Amino acid sequence: MIYVTGERLQPHQIRAAFFDTRWRGLDPDQVHAYLNQLADELDRLHREVTTANAEAERIRQALRQWRSRHTGCRYTDPDWLLNGRWRR
Prior knowledge:
mainly alpha
C-alpha cells in the first residue's frame, strides 16, 4: 500500500531510532541490528522505486514520440475498400 499523506519514513530515521532501556527489556544490540537491516531494505526499496519511476517516464516519453511520428498512419482493411463494409 502506498501512503499518500504524511511524511515517508527514511532509512536514516530508522538508523537513528532510540529506545529506552528497561529492566528485562530487549537486547539493544539485537534491536539496532534489526533496525539497520530494516533501514538497508528500505534504502534498497527507495532505489528500486526511483529506478522504476525513471524507466516509466522514459517509456512514456518514447510512446509520446512514437505517437507523434505516427499520427497520420492508419491501417486500412483491404476488404473494407473493396466491399465498402465489414465482412462477417
